[in-house]
Amino acid sequence: MLTLQCPYCGVWAEETELHAEGEAHLKRHGPGSADHDFESYLFMRENPKGVHFERWRHASGCGKFFHAARCTMTLEVFGTYPAQTLEPPQDIKDKITAKYPGWTWREFS
Amino acid sequence: MSKAVSALDGATFEGFAKVAETGLRGMITVRGDLASKEMAAAVKATTGAAVPAQRKVVTGDKGAVAWMSPDELLVVVDYDQAEAAVAQMNEALKGSHALVANVSDARAVFRLTGDGNRDVLAKLAPVDFAHEAFGADDIRRSRIAQVPAAVWGNADGSFEVICFRSVAQYVFDVLKVSAEVGGEVNHLG
Amino acid sequence: MSTRLTTGGRLLDKSKQVTFSFNGKQFTGFDGDTLASALLANDQMLMGRSFKYHRPRGVVASGAEEPNALVNLGKGGKFEPNQRATTTELYDGLTCTSQNHWPSLEFDVGVVNNYAARALPAGFYYKTFMAPAAAWKHVFEPIVRHSAGLGKAPKDRDADRYEHFYAFFDVVVVGGGVAGLMAAKAAGQSGAKVLLMEQTAHWGGRAPVDGGKVDGVKVDDFIDATVAELQAMDNVTLRNRMMGAGVYDHGYILGYERLTDHAPLMDGPRHRLWRIRAKQIVTATGAIERPLSFAGNDIPGVMLASAMRDYIVNHGVSSGDRVVVVANNDDAYRTAFTLKIHGLDVPVILDSRPNGGGPLADAAREQGFHVENGKGIAKVKGGKRVTGVAICAQAGEGAVLEEIACDAVAMSGGWSPVVHLWSHCGGKLIWDEAQAHFRPDPDRAPTSHDGKPFVATAGTASGPLKLDEVLVDGLKAGEAAAEAAGFAVTVADAPKGEVHDEAPLQACWLMPQGAGPKLRMKAWLDYQNDVKVSDVKLAAQEGYESVEHTKRYTTLGMATDQGKLSNINGLAVLSNALNQPIPATGTTTFRPPYTPISMGAIAGEARDEVFQPLRRTPIHEWHEANGAFFEPVGHWRRPYCFPRGSESHADAVSREIRQTRDSVGLLDASTLGKIIVKGPDAGKFLDMMYTNMMSTLKPGKCRYGLMCNENGFLIDDGVVARIDEDTFLCHTTTGGAERIHGWMEDWLQCEWWDWQVYTANVTEQYAQIAVVGPNARKVIEKLGGEMDVSKEGLAFMEWKDGKIGDFDARAYRISFSGELSYEIAVPASQGRAFWDALLEAGKEFSIMPYGTEALHVMRAEKGFIMIGDETDGTVIPQDLNMQWAISKKKEDFLGKRAQMRDHMASEDRWKLAGFETEDGSVIPDGSYIVDHGTNANGQRNTQGRVTSTYYSPTLDRGIAMGLIHGGMKRLGDVVEFNKVNGSTVKAKVVDPVFYDKDGEKQNV
Fold first, then answer.
1. CB contact under 8 A, A9 and B126
2. Is residue B189 part of a domain?
3. Would you tell me which residues 94-133 of chain B have a C-beta closer than 8 angstroms to some C-beta of chain C?
4. Are residues C669 and C804 in the same domain?
5. C822/C943 same-domain check
6. More confident residue, C530 or C111
7. Count of alpha carbons within 13 Å of C925, Cβ hemisphere only?
8. What is the mean pLDDT of residues C392-403?
9. A62: nearest CB among B126, B141, B143
């Protein structure tokens, strides 16, 4: 059972306080978008064995949504960060690079 | 105003620790910019307290304020002062983007006293209640068994558990089961 | 025979005799006995029957690894099957029965399976049940069910209580043997917060049995002194009778504390499951002795050498008068010495190593033991009890050299570290050729959230078996764990353990090594599941080469002991059959829990009243007192109807509807979600959340709105009231309050975080009561107060704050029934008083409450949709003819893009219509509208389905809504709905508004 640190209230919360909210950094495609883009936004998700970026909510806690970068294989957590961003912070990306040089995830590397 | 009745009308249980519903309390959810001058002034005017730091409670001469999230506070005053406090906060925050809502009736509050009260809480919430980890004026939002709740440490060593009114009976019952004689853990002291 | 000795028994309090019963026979034992030791003391070696062949079985081990001695323990509400006699502490009044036998332990009919064993090899069931299919249900399953199974399932409710406990430590040490004590001490001295747990009631593990000295004092005294030191440390917690059940991600470890199993009359919880977060975990879980695989190694009286030693030293119990010792290592000589010291006879020590043992063997010879090198057991003689052994050369095929009479056999095949906890979370193993066991590979430890190792092993769990090495390893492990947890450690010297040199063991996986099929068929690997050497060989021969496949094919290691004794021997036999080295075969996966834990401990406090949270409205008590029949709606309990006397539910619902339509009824609507949305961008935000335009709503007005997800499907609906320029109050469905609040926060926090909007869920701040019916206004007006609730004062789809009677109220003129209707919110603390006041005021109109079923019927009569009935997660508003609620002016709202997709815009979608049966009957719930022909699977084609179907007391006939191909274009068509009995019922497609089509009644 994972523990993640909520970047908003600072608590190291175990999974029972949290709610998994799917993939992070999805780009919304609304009216006017191409079928392909919309399909990708709705249905296409990463499922890596390795580095992954997810959304979580501190549901039984401060109620905030946040992002987590972790390895799905080792469960190492490279960091958690607030949801109000379009890409992972550089220090987290650096931490991943130190462990997995050459990693990529969607448009990030 | 018709007579207001709290969820369990002051129910109590005495095991190796004591559980008591405290009765109605004025509670106001305030959302806004916690760092703003206006917020500091509004909180000060209503409670006499400063805006609390992360996961802290500050008590003033007219009430107390608890940190709930980076943009949310819980202002606690006497129950019959709640509407006036809402009006006062709204007035003080006029012109700022903020939300002030009276939630006094949406909550139930339990006080836990006695030597084993930390152990009672530790049976129900995935939180470190050791003395060095959780003390007076600390607040933690978590869950009590299967429902969301906030736990608040008092200076006299007692704890308060705040939950939604609809699950007051459930929370009272799980606290009761956990405080029953024979179930002493003698761990957190 | 096995009996109580006058010597030994260090754990016993002989002043306290206790009485217990086994299969109805009364026995006595002492305080400090286990059930197994007490049974042995009463010469009850036969303790159960095996699972498949019903062979007589005695106890083999002395601890958690025991496969045979399982009992049905206790009675009534305290009954529990499959309890290991070796880990059951004896108490006065204990009652138990043996398992897997019929009619009795001594005489068992099922033993015919044993004689038919040749016909019941591994995979027998898989092969047999291939065909014919019908035979499974009528022949095989009844037979298998009757003869299989271990203990009996409990019949009564569990009389005990259980609980969880969340705890946080820097270092958790599992295992209170000398290594664990050293680790805890080292970590404790660094200042780290330490928990040391031990599964038995005693500290020190096996060391006191094996003997020896530490720093010149007896190991027992060293243990006592160390425990005293630990108890004096404030930062160290010691818990015995607590097992490390499992190690999980990120330092999570479960401690299974058995509080009253040893004293069932004690007050308090029976088990407490400690849910622990540890920065570092040290597993000092010891090692388990391996049996040897020779024919007849399962006959009662054949035991692990170490277990026999345990019973003598710990409990003063002999397992036999004349014991043959058979081993491939030096450690078993200790058992021979112990036997002799306590006056028992050892006719021969069979050492399978051609060159024999080291100093211990020399000592044995000096003491006059008869030691045979390079010899083994060809077969054990006896049925329900060992009567002798046939001796052979280990190198041969089992030609008998000599037969020796004996009544017990002590066997030792070497020791395997208990690596379970290390492995649970990914720790890897390496094969240690010298000791012939898998041990933890310290370089491949389980890692935590920081990518660093968080589990280490200590003592024999790491591999070393000798006291001096164990003490050093324990100390080092404790120091390293404290350091990894962030504490400064002053490196100390380990106490010096007294060492005996031992000669290396020599792996012995089959005895004799060339044993033929006949002997292999009687050489047991897994006692509990009756898996023999021959079964594993057969699996290999039939192509089950992966150890995981062999396990499942033979059931090796799949019993309640999870193969603690059998795994290594089994995979060695498999490796041998596949002609590959053991590491190439590998192990099966170690999964928690280490030994079975009670279901009660897993459930914790969650049973009876607190099994699940139950949400109650402020009026719940009144409902209960007035005979409400409740239905669950989420965690709420809402009154379905209020039956009076012997009235049926259907009659109650009809009465409630008629009263409401004719006069006035009350509904407790407090459960409806209420969310405040406030801020300069609140209107813009709600325009995105709802399909309708909300930003144009005027303060003081209400508007019904629909919410869709990004797939375009309906997820919620409700009335939105605009409170002021910046503030809206959104009503959600009862089940939707938390979900929709979260949904709003999701979009605000993760997509439009620059928009100035705050939300607050105020659902429970209010008790909300719907006053419904032609007399509703009169009832409210009777209460007095300043609020003008006249048609002009509060028009349809308006809201207003003010006093109603004494109450601070907010009244909404909204209607879900089609009647004149006010939904009135008052502070929850006054909800009950307000309800009472309305009942009092409504007396002259025969006012009565109605439940959710009346609500459902009345809304269906009006053709109003219900989320969850008309919608199922695949329905878009257009399917429900709700284009009127979808703004065409808005460029964007959640779901809009999806609703533009081809399939969503297709004319082929099933759409809403009403249905009236020709005979007036009620269409069954879930019914489909059948169509001509069949599909590719030969199933009848369908063209629609019913979504809501009720008896309408207002119209005195069945009414229904449903989705049908063509929707309202099909008006007037007659279609057929299927029924449960296979027939169909004809119904006409009609307008779904059955009652007051022009909406005049709600607008008066």
1. no
2. no
3. 97-99, 101-107, 119, 122-128, 130, 133
4. yes
5. no
6. C530
7. 2
8. 96
9. B141
* Pair type for strands C94-98 and C252-258: unpaired
Q: How far is Cα C789 from Cα C794, in angstroms, rounded to an integer? A: 5
Q: What is the distance between the alpha carbons of residues B103 and C763, in angstroms, rounded to a whole number?
A: 9
Number of domains chain B is built from = 2
Provide the strand spans (E) within B26-144.
26-31, 57-59, 64-69, 72-77, 99-102, 107-113, 139-144
Please name the residues in contact with C875: beta carbons below 8 A apart, sequence gap of 6 or more: C713, C714, C963
Q: What is the number of helices (H) and of strands (E) in chain B? A: 4, 11
Between CA C957 and CA C920 the distance in angstroms is 5
Number of domains in chain C: 4
Average pLDDT (B50-54) is: 98
pLDDT value at C125 more than 70: no
Q: Does B186 contact C at CB distance below 8 Å? A: no
Among C299, C301, C295, C294, residue whose Cα is nearest residue C383: C299
Domain assignment present for residue C836? The answer is yes
- CA dist C568 to C293, C413, C508, C574, Å? 11, 10, 11, 10
Rg (alpha carbons) of chain C, rounded to whole number: 38
- DSSP code at position C385: S
Of B61, B79, B105, the residue that ends a domain is: B105
- Indicate which CATH number applies to the domain containing C171: 3.50.50.60
Q: pLDDT of C343-378, one tens digit each?
A: 999 999 999 999 988 999 999 999 999 999 999 999
Chain C residues 742-761 with CB within 8 Å of chain B? 756, 758-760
> Cβ atoms within 10 A of the Cβ of A73, count?
12
Provide the pLDDT for residue C548. 92
- The bridge status of strand C162-174 relative to strand C271-283 is parallel
| pLDDT of C152 over the 90 cut | no
Mean of per-residue pLDDT scores for chain C: 95
The C-alpha of B12 sits at a distance from chain C's nearest C-alpha, in angstroms, of 17
Whole-Å CA distances, C772 to A29, C238, C328, C790, C997: 44, 64, 88, 14, 18
Identity of residue C152: K
Q: Which two tokens stand for residue C5?
A: 């000795």
Residue of A57, A75, A84 with shortest CB distance to C249: A75
The full set of domains in chain A, from first to last, is 3-99 (3.30.2270.10)
ipTM of the complex: 0.98
Nearest residue of chain B to residue A14 (CA atoms):
B126
Q: Kindly state whether residues C850 and C892 are assigned to the same domain.
A: no
Q: Which amino acid, residue C462?
A: S
CATH of the domain at B80: 3.30.70.1520
Same domain? For C192 and C284 the reply is yes
Measured in angstroms, the CA of B144 and the nearest CA of chain A are apart by 9
Range of the domain at B81: 26-105
**Which SS3 state, helix, strand or coil, does residue C111 take?**
helix
Q: Tell me the Ramachandran region of residue A79: left when phi exceeds 0, alpha when psi lies from -120 to 50, beta otherwise.
A: left
Closest CA to C174 of C118, C239, C224, C236: C239
Q: Are residues B130 and B65 in the same domain?
A: no
At B92, give phi and psi (nearest 5°).
-65, -25
Residues of B in contact with C808 (CB under 8 A): 1
Give me the residue from C450, C742, C896 closest to A30, CB to CB. Answer: C896
Round to whole Å and give the CA distance between C774 and C771.
10
CATH number at residue C878: 3.30.1360.120
pLDDT digits (tens, 9 = 90+) for C860-886: 999 999 999 999 999 999 999 999 999
Q: C101 lies in a domain?
A: no
Instruction: Say if the Cβ atoms of C252 and A1 lie within 8 Å.
Output: yes
Least-confidence region, from C102-116, C401-415, C691-705: C102-116
Q: How far apart are CA C274 and CA C255, in angstroms?
A: 5
